[in-house]
Amino acid sequence: MDDIKIMVKTIVNDNGDEFLSAEIMVDEILLTDKYLVDYKELIRSVRKDGEYFILTCSCGVSPCAGIYKGIEGEQYPFMTNL
Ligand SMILES: [Zn+2]
To answer: Are 35 and 14 within 8 A, CB to CB?
Structure first.
């Protein structure tokens, strides 16, 4: 089983606007230095089993970043939905 860590932090731009940023690490390898997180897919993945394209290209099209297979999300009875 892979060790997956998701770290969410707040980023403030020069205008003082706040944004959420997520970093995803799998087995201590940072994935979000090359890809962006599709938050809609991330939230859907914790609600229902299935394949989700959580990592994507900056244009929002995963195959554009060479991602042709999504991440399998699986639900466990002890987990709490967002
Ligand atoms: Zn792209």
So the answer is: no
Q: Per-domain residue ranges for the chain?
A: 4-73
Task: Tell how far the Cα of 76 is from the centroid of ligand 1, in angstroms.
Answer: 33
Question: Ligand 1 mean position to 11 CA, how many Å?
Answer: 23
- Around ion ligand 1, residues with a beta carbon closer than 5 Å are 57, 59, 64
Give distance in angstroms: CA of 64 to centre of ligand 1: 4
Residue pLDDT, tens place only, 43-74:
888 888 999 998 888 888 899 989 999 988 77
The verdict on pTM exceeding 0.70 is no
